[in-house]
Design brief:
By secondary structure, this protein is mostly helical. The protein is built from 27 helices and no strands.
Length: about 500
Amino acid sequence: MAACRRVQRLLLLMFICGWIGSAHGGKSDTENAAENAERGKNGAGEGKAAAPDGASSVRRSGGWKLAEEAACREDVSRICPKHAWNNNLAVLECLQDRKDVRKQGRDCILLWNYKFNLTTDPKFESVAVEVCKTTISGIKECAAEERGKGYLVSCLVDHRTNISEYQCNQYITKMTSIVFSDYRLICGFMDKCKDDINKLHCGSVNTGDKDIHSQGEVIACLEKGLVSEAEEQPAITIKEDCKKSIMRVAELSSDDFHLDRHLYFACREDRERYCENTPAGEGKVYKCLFNHKFEESMSDKCKDALSTRQKLIAQDYKVSYSLAKACKPDLRKYRCNMDTAMPRAREAKLSYLLLCLEAAVHRGQTVSGECQGEMLDYRRMLMEDYSLSPEIVLHCRGEIDTHCSGLHHKGRTLHCLMRVSRDKGILEGHCQKALQTLIQETDPGADYRIDRALNEACESVIQTACKHIRNGDPMILSCLMEHLYTDKMVEDCEHRLLELQYFISRDWK
């Protein structure tokens, strides 16, 4: 648990630096306590935890400043706003979110050592206890953590969605962004995934590799290895402990896309282009980017990162913050996570969640509007991109290469497979079953809008022949079938409708 202890001490001391460097007026009792603790440390001559290896012993009345180090001064003055220069935390956040920071030699070592060496001072857990006093007493798991072992903040991070105390929430939110910038500082990750990092050639686990921007690439490589297992059935598999760690990191970063470092850097320009006015938090930026994934001007690197994130959601719905939050009461109500005969990992799959809650809706039971809205979004997502369904990728690869290549967006590949099955009847058994299962999971017959290919092809027919029916009503599909051979029908709509209807009619449910 040495990694855990390093993480917690890092968080605590960085929190103190952030509060001390605040440019606001008066200081709260918490800020004063933090400043006194920091000054006491400096007065005792324990400078090594605050000043990085090789850094000059810059001492001002306010303590050592990262911005005054020769290796950082140029980048800080060029990149970071002047009001942030006295705040070590603000400087670190500014630099680690920029790709144009010089990443050679001492420059990079300085930033990494600053974070890493701060983890050696155990004094400041008492400050975390002060900042999160009410929160800790209200979360029994955190209250039970033994003090002085470095586990308390890890517990608070795990429960951060339940934190309402303002200062504690701000503390946890700020500090997680620092920790997630380096996979070696994520509690337990290094110990559980070191072998897999080497086995999959995901990068160096040598502490000499201190490029702060490379850390997200290591996790991204492991994530790709994880999602490829179901698609490729490779000889090399990731260990179960590492799989759990990968999914846990993905879950903990589900509310704020800044914490998914690979995706953050891959999609920064696309975020500005498509989601500039979308606030960070609660998974909103992820959802916005998902909705624009097939835009022509979306960069390939962002599309790839988004697809990996979506595939992780397909493996465990909790990786979607908004879906897990909206559907948690209904999942509990209808015991969707209580099937003792099923492996735990299978219960978390998005497909199982959708089938369980859709079954409740079809029985006439109530599922909240927020949850149904999230289900609609993810059913549409699965219909739109066949690569998010590992069974389709695994069992239909030959059919896609032969009959449907080059159609990978907006549901066209799936409709091509439907057409091949309907017109030629040549789909291999496993592919046919995988396609049938996907149609059952997404249930486009209940809402035609889930099927983007059908929706776009039939929009003009819906606006004329079916305009009297409420948008999203299942009767629209019946209306379209009634006008199948009339002058109001258009050719593209006819094809998409018959392809889908062929599969819906095979499953009376």
